[in-house]
Amino acid sequence: MAVPKPASKGVVGMKITARMGLLGCLMAGAMAAVKIGRKSRRISFKGLSVVITGGSRGLGLELARLFAGEGARLALVARDVEELERAGLELEAAGAEVHIYQCDVGNQEDVERTVQAIIGECGRVDVLINNAGIVQVAPFENFAVQDFKEAMDTHAWGALYMIRSIAPLMKRQGGGRIVNISSIGGLVAVPHLLPYSMSKFALTALSDGLRSELAKDGILVTTVAPGLMRTGSHIHALLKGQYQKEYAWFSISDANPLLSAHSRRAAKQIVNACRYGAPRLIITLPAALLHLLNANFSGLTTAATRLAARMLPSPVLGHSSPQTGLASGSWAAPSFLTRLADKASLHNNELPIKGH
Question: Mind listing the UniProt keywords for this protein, alphabetically (predicted)?
Fold first, then answer.
């Protein structure tokens, strides 16, 4: 019985080379297709109507500045009238067309009324940025159920109300862009930020699900998951328990340039993600690494967050009243350790007018 001869090393090498070449061609083709698809989705914001919730200060204001710089017409939505007026005056001085609307996005009737007013003045909505946010910092034991409800109202229900009011208009227009500002806390739960994480997880799920369902209508949905950003909003954080200690660790972390992104840099990334209709954007390397670690080595993430929770301030008895960051100062914060974040507060319209 004849035994087949093994293929020579030269033949085997040729086969491997051919397969590697085919694989390389397929990868190159896939990358080219992605690049072409990305380029085809690119839009210019000149003349487009852009609605930004939480647009009066912080990241929302930074986004408004960039959209205004590209010739967009702005509709800023926020709860504080004075902040809205200051933001509007700044943007108008730079040559932007700005409309301001006082609205609590957690109130469905308020949202529907505001959207109708926007349509009446602007005629259409091409881009919706769901950016309105609230940050509460405390141990789980010091949070009340109402704290979780308030976070859900702002991040999850507020975004849903805006989308339900605007998406039908976008559909009639033939398309649009929706950007939902979630958080790395909406992908990985963070100790002492449970209402925030719970509501941001809900927003991430809503955003990712809508991306698939609204694509048929030409509406592209982007989910943004930033890590820490130096927007200056740390002074508006609501703190419970040992609130001064909670404010110290939170504001110092927020100001650390190794952990946090400059608000303008983060805003530029978000505007570009919107421009190309990117499905998801994670901002800052630490946030991307944390997401990768949690997805692949959840045991390590669990161990790390357990350690972090032990190092954070312990709870106090009862559900204490929340204190703002501004009212929670100590020797540790504000200090040179929070300088960069404090500087952002001044730049991004976060500081209240004296006497108010």
Answer: Oxidoreductase
**pTM for this predicted structure:** 0.90
* Confidence band, pLDDT 50/70/90 cuts, at residue 9: low
pLDDT at 7 over 90: no
Cα-trace Rg, the chain: 24
Q: Could you tell me the residue ranges of all domains in the chain?
A: 44-347
Spatial contact of 60 and 129, defined as CB atoms under 8 Å apart: yes
pLDDT of residue 38: 65
- Residue 12: the pLDDT is 59
Q: With contact defined as beta carbons under 8 Å apart, do 285 and 230 qualify? A: no
DSSP string, 200-244: HHHHHHHHHHHHHHHGGGTEEEEEEEE--EESSGGGG-EE-SSHH
303 CB neighbour count, 10 Å cutoff: 11
Cα–Cα distance for residue pair 48/31, rounded to 1 Å: 30
3-state secondary structure of 272: helix
User: Per-residue pLDDT tens for 141-154?
Assistant: 999 999 999 999 99
CA-based nearest residue to 104, from 160, 146, 154, 63: 154
Report the greatest alpha carbon distance in the chain.
102
- Could you give phi then psi for residue 297, rounded to 5 degrees? -140, 65
> Is 196 an active-site residue?
yes
The arithmetic mean of pLDDT across residues 183-187, rounded, is 98
Q: How confident is the model at residue 320 (pLDDT cuts 50, 70, 90)?
A: confident
**Tokens 């200051």 sit on residue:** 86
Residue 41: what pLDDT? 87
Can you tell me which residue has the tokens 């200060």?
57
Which residue of the set 101, 161, 196, 247 is catalytic?
196
- Which tokens hold the place of 116? 């109708």
Return the structure tokens found at 93.
């001085």
Report which of 323, 152, 143 is spatially closest to residue 251, judged by C-alpha positions.
323
CATH code matching the domain that covers 44-347, chosen among 3.50.50.60, 3.40.50.2300, 2.60.40.10, 3.40.50.720: 3.40.50.720
pLDDT of residue 32: 56
Answer yes or no: are the C-beta atoms of 194 and 137 closer than 8 Å. Answer: no
